[in-house]
Amino acid sequence: MATYTMKEAKPAPSTSKGLLFWLRENLFSDIKNSLLTLVGLYFLYTIIPPLLNWMIFDATWSGTKDEVVKEGARWIFIVEKFDQFIYGFYPESLHWRPNLVALICIAFLLSMKFVKNINIKIALILLFPVVCFVLISGGGFGLEVVETEKWGGLMLTVLVAAVGIIASFPIGIILALGRQSHMPIVKTLCVGFIEFVRGVPLITILFMASVVLPLFFSDGIDFDKLLRALIGITLFQAAYIAEVVRGGLQAIPRGQYEASESLGLSYWQGMILVILPQALKISIPNLVGSFISLFKDTTLVLIIGLFDILAMVTLTNSDTNWLGYEVEGYVFVTMIYWVICFTMSQYSKSIERKFNTEH
Amino acid sequence: MNNSQLPPSANGFLNNPQNRAVIFQVLALMFVVFLAFYFANNMFDNVEKRGITTGFSFLDDVAGFGISQTLIEYDDAGSTYYDVFIVGLLNTLLVSIIGIFFASVLGLLIGVGRLSSNYLISRLSLVYIETFRNIPILLQILFWYNVVLAALPSPRKSFSYLDSVFLNNRGLLLPEPIFESGSSAILIALILAITGVFFLARWSKKRHDLTGEEFPLIKVSIALVLLAPVLVYFISGQPISAEYPHLKGFNFKGGLTIIPELLALMFALSIYTATYIAEAVRAGIEAVPNGQKEAAKSLGLKDHVILTKVVLPQALRVIIPPVINQYLNLVKNSSLATAIGYPEIVTLFSGTTLNQVGQAIEIILMTMAVYLTFSIVISLMLNWVNAKMAIKGR
Fold first, then answer.
1. Is A118 exposed, middle or buried (CB count within 10 Å of its CB: 0-12, 13-18, 19+)?
2. Which pLDDT does position B295 carry in this prediction?
3. Is residue A334 domain-resident?
4. B142 contacts in A (CB within 8 Å)?
5. In the predicted model, is pLDDT for residue A302 greater than 80?
6. Which of A19, A299, A345, B96 is the least crowded, having the fewest Cβ atoms under 10 Å away?
7. Nearest of B92, B340, B135, B146 to residue A303 by alpha carbon
């Protein structure tokens, strides 16, 4: 009887595994690809080393500005003006108040995740903006009043974005429901508002809010500049939220609407208990996308004379002791925006992946 | 249903959904009308109190300020606010069209690069997209204008290319074409060539439908559109010449100047919008199922036929709507030019004119009307494209 012995398996040929194989497969698979790779490498070579040198190796991190000897970025400017970039002209002795608000925000977000009792949740949601507002603007509870003209920097940027997001949300949902409703007049009004706002640039709405809005009210009512900007941004954002929520509403199968009706729920009960929870859940990625654009759009308030973090670049450079540091200023602000926007967009992508159960 | 068995309250007028709808709508309408009336009333009061004139008669007044870039005849002393409006409108159009062109080219390249089998290229494209779309457009505009372009040398030390193109802190200087008599023939030739291509396309499609024979339409069209004007140019005795910019004293004379504001805006708008277009292109190409390509391959089609006849027609259906939306966004974002003083409609009209005239309501409404018109035109275009590209049911 013939005996068969198992032959030892040969290792895979060296040309089909390992680093070299990966390189050949992904970078040098043919002549065209090799050329592209070389062009790409050359591009990286011209960009990366000078950039790293400028930002890190040749940069000046500490000392005074007269001691700068190196060619690279002079980050001492940012160190020197850091408080202005973050708080604007908010009085230095009161910086603890915005800091406390930041802590409260974190605590609030955590409590939303862990508190299960709905009544406590609602109470917290209602209490949170009031506490933040009182802490920042002062007045009452023995806190010194800080006028809105002194608010600025990253604090103002985040504040404008947060108010825009929170205030526009309910308006946007109502507009979306109005647009989906069967009542012709309500529908026309909502469609008219949404399409009008989406058709014009934010800057014209901000101009409208800052120049025309005061004319709409009798003389007794006075808006300060920040409030006008907030009204403009909220109305603008509401139209975009409305479109996102409408997308979610349309994705809900008709059966859900019919089921909620056959359970005898009224329109509002059906919407709040059945339709909206599902519609909002599937719109979360798009809502986050819309929040990212809003966060980027908050830079526009500098055009109507508010001092957000971007406006601080020009402002800090008008200090006669610190002239000509625009590059460092812009790069610093760019990094802040980039980190925040990129984090939000990765978050939205991760949610999208979590919800995506298709295969 | 027997109504008498229901509790009396359920029979009431208010419980009829139709009645409720009517009442609710009447209330909503009344609220809006009341609000509008209240605002209008206050507005007229305030306008009267502050002594602001109303109406559009200010459009005929002489504006009396200089504008750094005008596409039509404009002089500081005689031109009216109406001229200012037109100048701003044209400048908005100019920067939008240039921006749309470069954003499309860049976006297409990056989007295709994103899908490249070359690891390095696809990573670089990804880095490009993630970098530039997460930085506010206004920040990018200001960066280009205040940092990059401000660092350019003075006219005497400008960067030059072949002694005809110059780049300095006054802008980009190009040779300006001078049209002499007879150059209209070239334009006519171009128009004729384009009309010819249009009819050629219809004819070749019809022939393809009837006989299945292919006609090399794209090659012939490009040749026709390029060759016809060039041929006429030489036949009519080269009526177009160029005027080169030359250094005179401290500045350049002659030639075509692209002001730095326009350059900064162009760079920022095209780089920013290109990231969104690239994502749309990538999503569109990825949306074509692999089975389509495999099926085409198993039919024995060549690679370029698969691309032009199978992949692209299906991908374009997904790509075009979001890209057109991005074009609209680019037009709206061009309004940020006001931050660097590029003379477009918001800068000139909602800025300078508003400061001089003070009629905020009319001026801002006119500016908004311009953008609304743009967005209506673009969404009509989008609807037309969608109808054209919709999958025809059989």
1. exposed
2. 94
3. yes
4. 310, 313, 330
5. yes
6. A19
7. B340
Average pLDDT of the segment spanning B129-133: 93
Q: Which of B136, B147, B332 sits opposite A296 (nearest CB)?
A: B136
Closest CA to B97 of B350, B368, B334, B382: B334
Provide the shortest C-alpha distance from residue B211 to chain A (in Å).
38
From CA A141, how far away is CA A103, in angstroms rounded? 19
Q: Which residues of B51-71 are buried (b: 16+ CB within 10 A; e: fewer)?
A: eeeeeeebbeeebeeebebbe
Mean pLDDT of B110-129: 91
Residue A207 has pLDDT above 50, yes or no: yes
Q: What is the average pLDDT across B278-304? A: 91
Q: Give the per-residue pLDDT at A127.
A: 87
Measured CA to CA, the distance from residue A312 to residue B139 in angstroms comes to 12
Question: Out of A149-153, B88-92, B263-267, B340-344, which region has the weakest mean confidence (pLDDT)?
Answer: A149-153
- A80 in any annotated domain: no
Of the candidates B46, B117, B121, the beta carbon closest to that of A40 is on B121
Structure token digits, residue A248: 């979610």
Structural domains in chain A (count): 1
CB atoms B42 and A297 under 8 Å: no
Instruction: Enter the CATH code of domain B81-175+244-389.
Output: 1.10.3720.10
A-chain CB neighbours of B89 within 8 Å are none
Min Cα separation B240/chain A (Å): 38
Q: Parallel, antiparallel, or unpaired: how do β-strands B256-258 and B171-174 relate?
A: antiparallel
Q: Which one, of B95, B91, B107, B86, lies nearest residue B325 by Cα?
A: B107
pTM for the complete prediction? 0.87
Cβ within 8 Å of residue B252, ≥6 positions away: B155, B158, B166, B168, B170, B173, B245, B246
Tell me the H-state helices in B288-359: 290-298, 303-305, 312-333, 345, 354-357
Domain with A254, as residue range(s), is 154-355
**Cα separations in angstroms, A343 against A86, A337, A349, A350, B108:** 19, 10, 10, 11, 26
Q: Do B120 and A345 touch (CB under 8 A)?
A: no
Average pLDDT of the segment spanning A308-316: 88
Closest CA to A215 of B45, B357, B365, B355: B45
The answer to whether residue A168 is domain-embedded is yes
Question: Are the beta carbons of A204 and B364 separated by less than 8 Å?
Answer: yes
Chain B residue with Cα closest to A308 = B139
Report if residue A307 sits inside a domain.
yes
Q: How many residues does chain A have?
A: 359
CA angle A160, A166, A168 (to 5 degrees): 90
Residue B1 confidence (pLDDT): 45
For A36, which of B39, B118, B134 is closest by C-beta distance? B118
Q: Which of B29, B124, B368 is closest, CB to CB, to A204?
A: B368
pLDDT at residue A326, rounded to an integer: 85
- Pair of tokens at residue B19: 């009645």
Residue A357 binned pLDDT confidence (cut-offs 50, 70, 90): low
* CATH classification at residue A315: 1.10.3720.10
* pLDDT value of residue B128: 94
The nearest CA of chain B is from the CA of A305 a distance in Å of 11
Q: Searching chain B, which residue's CA lies closest to the CA of residue A27?
A: B118
Give the C-alpha separation, B139 to B144, whole Å.
Answer: 9
Note whether ipTM > 0.90 here: no
| Residue at token pair 């980027």 | A296
Task: Return d(Cα A48, Cα A46) in angstroms, integer.
Answer: 6
Amino acid, res. B231: L
pLDDT tens digits along A82-109: 888 888 888 888 888 888 888 988 898 8
